[in-house]
Amino acid sequence: xxxxxxxxxxxxxxxxxxxxxxxxxxxxxxxxxxxxxxxxxxxxxxxxxxxxxxxxxxxxxxxxxxxxxxxxxxxxxxxxxxxxxxxxxxxxxxxxxxxxxxxxxxxxxxxxxxxxxxxxxxxxxxxxxxxxxxxxxxxxxxxxxxxxxxxxxxxxxxxxxxxxxxxxxxxxxxxxxxxxxxxxxxxxxxxxxxxxxxxxxxxxxxxxxxxxxxxxxxxxxxxxxxxxxxxxxxxxxxxxxxxxxxxxxxxxxxxxxxxxxxxxxxxxxxxxxxxxxxxxxxxxxxxxxxxxxxxxxxxxxxxxxxxxxxxxxxxxxxxxxxxxxxxxxxxxxxxxxxxxxxxxxxxxxxxxxxxxxxxxxxxxxxxxxxxxxxxxxxxxxxxxxxxxxxxxxxxxxxxxxxxxxxxxxxxxxxxxxxxxxxxxxxxxxxxxxxxxxxxxxxxxxxxxxxxxxxxxxxxxxxxxxxxxxxxxxxxxxxxxxxxxxxxxxxxxxxxxxxxxxxxxxxxxxxxxxxxxxxxxxxxxxxxxxxxxxxxxxxxxxxxxxxxxxxxxxxxxxxxxxxxxxxxxxxxxxxxxxxxxxxxxxxxxxxxxxxxxxxxxxxxxxxxxxxxxxxxxxxxxxxxxxxxxxxxxxxxxxxxxxxxxxxxxxxxxxxxxxxxxxxxxxxxxxxxxxxxxxxxxxxxxxxxxxxxxxxxxxxxxxxxxxxxxxxxxxxxxxxxxxxxxxxxxxx
Length: 730
Known about the structure:
Elements: E1 2-3, H1 7-25, E2 53-56, H2 58-64, H3 69-73, E3 79-83, E4 89-93, E5 108-112, E6 115-116, E7 131-138, H4 142-145, E8 152-158, E9 166-174, E10 178-188, E11 192-203, E12 212-224, E13 229-242, E14 248-250, H5 252-257, E15 270-289, E16 292-312, E17 322-344, E18 347-366, E19 370-374, E20 377-381, E21 386-405, E22 410-432, E23 437-462, E24 465-476, H6 480-483, H7 485-488, E25 501-516, E26 519-538, E27 550-567, E28 573-589, E29 592-598, E30 604-607, E31 620-628, E32 634-643, E33 646-647, E34 655-656, E35 659-672, E36 675-684, E37 692-696, E38 713-716, E39 721-729
Parallel strand pairs: 1-23, 5-8
Antiparallel strand pairs: 2-7, 3-4, 5-6, 7-8, 9-10, 9-39, 10-11, 11-12, 12-13, 13-15, 14-38, 15-16, 16-17, 17-18, 18-21, 19-20, 21-22, 22-23, 23-24, 24-25, 25-26, 26-27, 27-28, 28-31, 29-30, 31-32, 32-35, 33-34, 35-36, 36-39, 37-38
């Protein structure tokens, strides 16, 4: 068992909390201070919040009309969503963990209706149609959400009942066979409120083998027990089919000539990807009086994923044409989460408990006899071979927030959370050498206890301006297969002493509002630094397959500036601007020999990554949108997104060019039979630039002993696309 609690820091935090309560027990009443909730209620950022929090509202999401989660998140400074095929996104914040992109925790908790959703190797799958609002918490949010939130959290609230009676239908059509049909109903009475939503979405896709279909039905019913309490039941059943998770093309030459990956002689590594997303929860809320309230949420989430993989050449004609394995990757979560909020003197206190079980099952079975070259290594496969992995986590977490006014202008915030996590890991391998079979099962258990905290303050300069600052900690657990790699692969070695990866976030900033002609300007400026220690990686660089063990290879520092500016959207002309400057680099790293940069004597160079930039961390990112309302009915919108160049590899040998893109949209509101009708047309990537959305380098693919941009796997933007649609409300 490992405990990453820093006793001195924890004692100081507890002492400060008690001191804050003691001071305010006798203080004058400075007004009600509001604590932040981690549960399903997504509120606007409170005036005394000590961290940077960005909220994307329902109307903004509607205007964006996202086809991918990245289209929403790119409007938030400091946040990136590395795009894969289909609707898969890997979300990073402030560059934390950006050197990894395959099967790792990205350091950003994805929280849906208050519950952190277990991700499959950092890949997020979600029903886009169900999203109502998104709140982004910057810097470590482990003090609210535990080990998956060392870089921050994306808190998604799904559409909820409203006290109105309304129906609306919408339809969208666009490039590459895109269609999206949505029907929504709201029903409200004195006793209950109901929301139901159905959605069918499909596209042929720009990239080869990229057809996608989604069908979903979701809804919530809120029953009012009395004027102080209610109970809400919610369900979301979503089925997805993706022809493949293809999208990358090898090398800039091929990416330029053949951006969709057609006729390149390869088939996707996976095909026939079927996803079942089932989410259910029930919430009891009670306003207990005296500024107190109680929330209790029970949840059950399924993310069931099956597909075929491992392509091979079945007829010896030199081209892969068949798939040799059948795969299931299932995530099942269930649990209960409760929070109680109250006022103590002039302070506000929130205490919570998070109790849950998550199970990850990974099943791979060979369905044909074949030979295939996978990741540079040729292997023989025999029908009936299988790997059956079960990883189960039991979690118990207690957390609290105390927000106390020291004076009428100064408010302090203290958070603390303790996580106890127990893991039970089992792998069965049935293997054949062509003549005989071996059947082995390996079991391992592990347990971790970790404490996270945040200490912050907010000082009100005037009713239009506030300065804030905070320090928060985060952590990432080593997985059982990282600690005991040798137990599951005889060619590797165990490292049971692998330490927990930790981070500490420092932040300070100012936010407020200023008059701007006949409008008003809202602004937020933040300076941050996140220091990560004991980074967990393969000993010989992140994806070097010669590595024999996982180690704590080094440290990194992520520093930067985030700026947001926005004006009142009710005005005739309005705008939004988000800007990020990010400098993310290794401050310490164990030297290693590179497999892909041999000298003339044939020997590998020794690399020390100190001061190297983390991959895929551009220095500058800008998103600017401008709205113009020449009449009450017509709105014209434009958006420019810019991303500067970045390295695609840890060794900083492969630099990818930056890009910019212009999107345009027009929306017109009118009446049809006394009911509301809105029509829109949208053009994304107006200049038809097939820029490189995301690039990765894992190895010297062409065998020339040097990494170049021809070794990169590149995801190419489809260029100019058109969409048109309408929404009718009655």
